[in-house]
Amino acid sequence: MINFTRLKKILVPATVLCGVMAIASVAPVMSGFSDQAFAAATDKDKRKFEDRKTRRTPALKEKVYKVLGKAQECADANDYICALQVLQDGLGYKLEKLNSYERAQYYNFRGFLFYSQEKYNDALRAYENVLRQENLPAAMEDTTVYTMAQLYFIKEDYNNSIKMMLRWLEYQPSPTAQPLVLLGQAYYSLGSVDGISEAQAAVHFKKAIPYVLRAIDLYIAAEKEPKENWYLLLRVMYFEMKENQKVVDILELLVNKWPKKEYWLQLAGMYGEMGSEAKSEKIRTTLEKKQLATYETAYRQGFLAKSSELVNMSQLYMYHDAPYWASVVLDKGIKSGIIEKNKKNFENLAQARINAQDMRQSLEPLRVAAEMAKDGELYKKLGQVYMQLDDYKNGAKYLGLALKKGGLKRKDSVAVYQGMCYFNMGQLANARKSFELAVKDKRSRKQARKWISYLAKEQKRLQQIKEFLG
Fold first, then answer.
1. How far apart are CA 389 and CA 82, in angstroms?
2. How confident is the model over 178-230, as pLDDT tens digits?
3. Closest by alpha carbon to 244, among 2, 4, 1, 7?
4. Is the pLDDT of residue 85 over 60?
5. Do residues 136 and 55 lie in contact, with contact meaning Cβ atoms separated by under 8 Å?
6. CA 156 to CA 152: how far, in whole Å?
7. pLDDT at 40
8. What is the number of other CB atoms lying within 10 angstroms of the CB of residue 195?
9. Where are the alpha helices (DSSP H) in 337-376?
10. Residue 372 or 28, more confident
11. DSSP 130-172
């Protein structure tokens, strides 16, 4: 089984998940989710919601309303300094005289203005003051808490972001998908900090996953397409937790909905990884076939555009006893200039053609690889291929080049092969020289001596024939 693809971590930006100043809307509650945050409301929960409904919120005085309106005009013109000054001059100096709702509106507006200037710490302090006000309207409290959760997320203060999101969810029996993904993203981010152990990371990932799954369920129930990034978030967490089958399930979904190159290659890599770990031969074989089919699909779609990717494709074909197709991929890649023209790739092309019993087509790439090699091993192989083609002249030539280049593992065996070529060409004197070279190595001594003895008898026989005919 060939493994050559690893998954990359993908951090989904907060801005992709939801707008910072967004207000959560209400959607139908879905079944099949066991997290306590979404369980059916108990009697105590119902009393909690009733308590929020009975809050008596003070009225907003007309003078305060006018100040807020004037500040809004400045904000609409993106003049935030003007808006802050209007708030300060009109309301800030007499906060103690304002009722709790008016003070909440004052701090809420300041929070928005600070956020618009990316002064997140000032924005958070303003929103904290909103939450300190008594009898705050439930909707305003929820919006403020949710906004603070998003601001903490932007600041990468994930613990406080989670704290605020859980507080917000406490009063949301039917949250929409975006806030759930934001919470899942925050837990994921906690599990992805540098230096965290796998066990600690898994704790955070296990908390994150149900929220992301819930968001996907909500979209599917509403006949909407879940976001691609949501599946990517799940994919990374399952991968980090080594839940390979779930990673494969997600990648199979991704290649169907968003058939991108990276998903095809990652899916092929996961099949390879799972196959290498399979305990059953049957399962291993099935996964190996899936890996080949997946990688081949990527190849047929033109996704493999790098030298390493095409070489991987050829290796998979070789592994699955399809040397012809391996040679096609390599040959096409080399001719197009995508696959590097180096010794290894020419050697692989030659080997693929040899395995496909296409000996003559293997000669040229093997010769090129031999010329690039630092030793004579490939010249030896080239000479042996010529021997199989009964071309003993070229066989002797390239075996001789192997001996000349040197660096051979078995110089003696090369000499034997060369002697055999000379013998088949009728050059008995040259054959004897080759076998005499082989005799020097004890590993071929016995065989070489037999050949020398045979050559002596043959030379004697040929001399006798010559004398007889003469």
1. 91
2. 999 999 999 999 999 999 999 999 999 999 999 999 999 999 999 999 999 99
3. 7
4. yes
5. yes
6. 6
7. 41
8. 5
9. 343-355, 359-372
10. 372
11. HHTSTT--HHHHHHHHHHHHHHHHHTT-HHHHHHHHHHHHTT-
Give yes or no for residue 300 having a pLDDT over 60: yes
Integer Cα distance of 285 and 293 in angstroms: 12
- Residues whose CB falls within 8 Å of the CB of residue 162, separated by 6 or more in sequence, listed in order: 149, 183, 186, 187, 190
Mean pLDDT within 38-67: 68
Amino acid at 205: F
Residue 318's Cβ-count burial label (10 Å; 0-12, 13-18, 19+) is buried
Q: Directed axis angle between helix 244-257 and helix 228-240, to 10°?
A: 160
Q: For the range 206-211, what are the long-range contacts, defined as Cβ-Cβ under 8 Å and sequence gap of 24 or more?
A: 206/241, 208/183, 208/184, 208/233, 208/237, 209/184, 209/234, 209/237, 209/238, 210/33, 210/34, 210/35, 210/184, 211/35, 211/180, 211/181, 211/183, 211/184, 211/187
d(CA 451, CA 428): 10
pLDDT tens, position by position, 167-190? 999 999 899 999 999 999 999 999
Rounded to a whole number of angstroms, the distance between the first and last alpha carbons of the chain is: 67
Q: Name the band, by pLDDT with cuts 50, 70 and 90, for residue 38.
A: very low
Query: Phi/psi class of residue 170: alpha, beta or left (left: φ > 0; alpha: ψ in -120 to 50)?
Result: alpha
Around 393, how many Cα atoms within 13 Å sit in the side-chain half-sphere? 0
Q: How many residues does the chain have?
A: 470
Return the SS3 of 331. helix
Residue type, 109: F
* Amino acid at site 134: E
Token match 């296409």: residue?
Answer: 358
Q: Which two tokens stand for residue 317?
A: 């074909």
**Tokens 């599946």 map to which residue?**
231
Of the candidates 300, 31, 17, the residue with the CA atom closest to the CA atom of residue 149: 17
Structural tokens at position 173: 């029996």
| The two three-digit tokens of residue 381, written as one number | 């192989």
CA angle 133, 138, 143 (to 5 degrees): 85
The amino acid present at 2, given as its one-letter code, is I
Of 141, 125, 142, nearest in space to 26 by CA: 142
Distance CA 109, CA 49 (A): 26
What phi, psi does 286 have (nearest 5°)? -60, -45
428-443 pLDDT, tens digit each: 999 999 999 999 989 9
